[in-house]
Amino acid sequence: MIDGRRVQFVIARLDRVQVRAALGGPDVGDTAWLSDIAKHDNAIAAVNGGYFEAYAKHVQRKNLDQTTVIDGSMVFKGDVGSVLYFDRDNHATIERIPLRIDGSLDGNTSYPNNWYAYWFNRLPGPGGETITIFTPAWGHSTGLAGGPQIQVTDGVVSQINYGPTRIPSDGYVIYFRGEYQVASHFWVGRRASYTVHAEDGSAPGIATAWEAIGGGPQLLVEGMDYANPAAEGFKDPKVFRSGKRAMVGVSQDQSELIFAVASGTLDQCAHIMKKLGAYDAMNLDGGASTGLWANGKYLVSPGRQINNALVLTR
User: Fold this and answer.
1) How many helices (H) and strands (E) are present in the chain, helices listed first?
2) Where do the domains of the chain lie?
3) Residue 250 β-bridge partners
4) Which end of the chain is more exposed for a tag (fewer CB within 10 A), N or C?
5) Do 212 and 126 contact (CB within 8 A), yes or no?
6) Rg of the Cα trace of the chain?
7) What is the pTM of this model?
């Protein structure tokens, strides 16, 4: 009990574990129970990750909502909330980083050779325009009708289709719905590349992150209570009100990583994380997604399958 609230938590030494972002299955958008995700990765502990489109109907894949990086590759770019990311030495950072994707053709970033994308690996809705990059994390094919779909292999446009397109293991596919003027600048043989950077043009640390998972809002920033969901782009009232929450935090000396689950307001949960030794901390998905698993069993059982998690392996 902390401040009269029941808290389940796991504290791990970062020099004894490897931190990984994990998906609910082999492809982005797959869902599974937290325990199955943990067992698949031979984890010693796991907590549910960031928000996702849990209530999307009539689709097998549930879109991620927040930035996720696995093994050095960005599998999704989110716009809302903050991100916890780790370098290859397990050094952790939590920050709010709105990102954008900008591309070039034949090394030229000026019009008409510049291009952009809105998303990575996101199942398009039934309407509206989009430019989405599909990487091998999505699977072997886009599986989508329409287009144009620009296949890029080893940095060169290798094919342009108007139906399901193979995603090369050493490349990606750019899917267009609308924005056809941008698509018209691609043709087979052109060199294509993209970069991910902060909206202000700076190169964010997450660009070199090895593992990352989105969440938010931040609960603690350098030991100070800091919970401002509106400032991080949240609009869903469930984020603002009291409820069941999963949280993650890091100690000031970067020696410990803390997973915790409790019920309360964001401010109350910030105080709980401080009591557990966190110096920087972030809220994760909550409600029915909330789950905490350690040493082969649930400490907190989730009420639904999820599509991303944060796991610790030896």
Assistant:
1) 4, 24
2) 8-96+205-313, 99-196
3) 257, 280
4) N
5) no
6) 20
7) 0.92
